[in-house]
Amino acid sequence: xxxxxxxxxxxxxxxxxxxxxxxxxxxxxxxxxxxxxxxxxxxxxxxxxxxxxxxxxxxxxxxxxxxxxxxxxxxxxxxxxxxxxxxxxxxxxxxxxxxxxxxxxxxxxxxxxxxxxxxxxxxxxxxxxxxxxxxxxxxxxxxxxxxxxxxxxxxxxxxxxxxxxxxxxxxxxxxxxxxxxxxxxxxxxxxxxxxxxxxxxxxxxxxxxxxxxxxxxxxxxxxxxxxxxxxxxxxxxxxxxxxxxxxxxxxxxxxxxxxxxxxxxxxxxxxxxxxxxxxxx
Length: 281
Ligand SMILES: C[S@@+](CC[C@H](N)C(=O)[O-])C[C@H]1O[C@@H](n2cnc3c(N)ncnc32)[C@H](O)[C@@H]1O
Ligand SMILES: [Zn+2]
What we know:
Radius of gyration: 19 Å
Number of strands: 11
Order of helices and strands: HEEEEHHHEEHEEHEHHHEE
CATH architecture of the domain at 49-208 and 249-278: 3-Layer(aba) Sandwich
Bound molecules: S-adenosylmethionine, zinc ion
Number of helices: 9
Strand order of the largest sheet: 3-4-7-6-5-8-9-11-10
Helix content: 25-40%
Distance between the termini: 43 Å
CATH topology of the domain at 49-208 and 249-278: Rossmann fold
């Protein structure tokens, strides 16, 4: 891995940090050394250009971390790509989500579960992006592919406990992860905290009961469905079991509890959703 020295480009970049141990404000010294909490002394190293906030995670977040760090994800991604092709291409399909982001230059965007940031090149170049993810493999790919030449700061950490101060961002975005966060509602509350009052929040994922599009469960062949998703499509056993456990998740109810002016829409011919709302003023 290459070594990239962190260099806050502006005061904002240096002062965006919050200690997840004690909640105090923290500052990036900009010399490549760790961000040190002035209150509890907790240190957040900057490793290969990524701010390391939390490496060891539990429950669903651990299942996701193992999957996205493993060779299964590139194999499973074929099916994501295949779906997008059937929806008119990846850029077009993703624009159903990205079009909800605010317009304007020099905006500050928080991207939760940024992965390899495949859509970063489609966002205005003047934007400052902070991306959080539990997978260091995905963050490394993001840094080397899609963040090159852009103002993107990457953080290894969890959606449920963001290492950023309150009211910092114009908008928050999360695509492809919300259903299986350890605590989706807490993650949404964290996005609300991080954006400015009235700031936009845009969240999209597949519908939790997506596998109903396969006919097997309905005719009593849940095992066939499980095999197809886990082995043939390469989601793996643990992730497949996690998907099964969340089939009843009521995403719309969560969104309406937390956001004001919330719009919920099914997209991608019903296989996905996007909800958009504002942080309460
Ligand atoms: C399907 S990928 C989506 C990546 C990107 N947003 C996209 O649309 O291409 C899901 C990402 O969510 C991340 N993830 C899952 N649970 C997370 C959590 N609790 N906090 C932060 N990231 C998480 C995974 O590591 C993975 O990179
Ligand atoms: Zn602290």
